[in-house]
Design goal:
single chain, 177 residues, alpha+beta, four-stranded antiparallel sheet, 4 strands, globular
């Protein structure tokens, strides 16, 4: 009788372990050998955003952050990643000054939101992304597109990734219509 109980318990444990292992399988990585028909993220570069419009984007991002009680660092760069305007909100984390600019620069130079890099590493396991020069795999950098041309990018840092992204989304909405 004792042998049957031990056998049944062992069998049940094996089923539970196998089921848990199967439930936690990561998604299959994308096929890196696939050749797309079109070039992804091919928005052409345009003239740089001017200081007045960069300040308007920063003001919108800061208004969103203030409304939610967040203290963010907010950077706007031109298409090549050069800083056009910056704001450090009162009490914003000092370490995030450089990170906000880095997010904006990465977004402009690679012509995509930095969330794309975060997802590539976190969800798809494409860790090689981290070896690319000037990449930051953290959301909170969004390209600024006008007349189908990239005129710069906005980057926010100081909160969680989702807070940074929400601030940037508000700022980008002044340009991306």
């Amino acid at each position: 009788m004792r042998t049957r109980i031990v056998t049944a318990a062992t069998f049940a444990a094996a089923i539970l372990v196998t089921g848990a292992a199967n439930a936690q399988q990561p998604p299959a990585p994308p096929n890196l050998d696939a050749i797309p028909d079109k070039m992804p993220w091919a928005t052409p570069y345009g003239p740089s955003i001017n200081a007045e419009r960069a300040q308007a984007a920063i003001a919108a991002a800061a208004a969103e952050a203030t409304k939610r009680g967040w203290a963010l660092n907010i950077a706007v760069v031109g298409p090549g990643g050069g800083l056009v305007a910056f704001l450090r909100m009162d009490n914003a984390q000092l370490a995030s000054i450089a990170i906000a600019e880095h997010k904006a620069r990465t977004s402009a130079r690679f012509r995509r939101p930095t969330k794309v890099f975060e997802d590539a590493v976190q969800k798809a396991g494409l860790n090689y992304i981290l070896t690319l020069d000037d990449v930051i795999a953290s959301r909170g950098g969004i390209p600024l597109i006008e007349n189908d041309k990239l005129i710069g990018a906005i980057g926010c840092s100081g909160g969680t990734g989702s807070q940074d992204e929400a601030g940037c989304t508000a700022g980008a909405a002044t340009i991306n219509k």
